[in-house]
Design brief:
The chain is an alpha+beta fold. The chain has one domain. Helix content is 37%, strand content 17%. It contains 6 helices and 5 strands; from the N terminus they run αααβαββαββα. Strands 1-2-3-4-5 form a 5-stranded mixed beta sheet, with helices on both faces. Helix 2 runs antiparallel to helix 3. It is globular, with a radius of gyration of 17 Å. The relative contact order is 0.16. The structure holds zinc ion. The site of zinc ion (ZN) has 7 residues, from loops.
């Protein structure tokens, strides 16, 4: 059994933030709604609520709510530099007896609703772009690489209608994942950093 799954199973005091019988799909949807609403609140309050805070909350909630379905591996700055990812996660499909690993780099839409900051950032003092390091790590580990975008848009008409998976809401757009390893065009689109 993987270390992080054992960690939660042996520590019943690790209580999930949302008690009850949420499915993983429901939790992921709630995560999107939560990110949207927190970013809205931060904009209105003119206070920071950034990428790291959102990431840490999402990972804590998903890992404690679904310890048998998902394992999370947050990467601190040194590991982020080495992998190009903010975290790895591993979904466990018990019915199929299968794990699916992914590497994820998170970006937050700025408060002016225009740009994902630092999409073109390089690693440390090197000229290696973060996205290239992420793609290389994914290739070596033979797993998908994703961008996770945290969003709130004040102009609702800019939100694509196809994203919602519940009741035609805007909030489902709060946490959007984009695969970087499906095709070169996906990667080019993400790199442009514009909506
Ligand atoms: Zn929705």
């Amino acid at each position: 059994m993987h270390r992080s799954r054992r960690h939660f199973i042996q520590r019943p005091q690790c209580v999930a933030a949302y008690r009850g019988q949420l499915t993983l799909d429901s939790s992921l949807r709630l995560t999107a709604h939560w990110a949207w609403e927190r970013r809205l609140t931060a904009k209105l309050a003119e206070l920071p609520f950034g990428e790291e805070t959102i990431t840490e909350t999402i990972l804590l909630d998903l890992a404690t709510q679904h310890p048998r379905e998902i394992s999370v591996f947050p990467f601190h700055s040194r590991m982020e530099g080495r992998t190009g990812a903010d975290w790895g996660w591993c979904f466990h499909d018990s019915a199929a007896g299968r794990f699916t690993r992914m590497l994820v780099q998170a970006k937050v839409l700025d408060a002016r609703d225009q740009t994902y900051a630092r999409l073109d950032r390089t690693i440390g003092n090197t000229s290696v772009r973060q996205i290239d390091r992420l793609l290389e790590t994914a290739r070596q580990r033979r797993c998908p690489a994703l961008y996770a975008f945290y969003n709130h848009l004040s102009d609702a008409s800019r939100v694509p209608s196809s994203v919602c998976t519940c009741f035609g809401c805007l909030q489902c757009w709060g946490f959007l994942s984009l695969s970087l390893t499906l095709s070169a065009s996906c990667s080019a689109e993400a790199e442009s950093g514009r909506l």
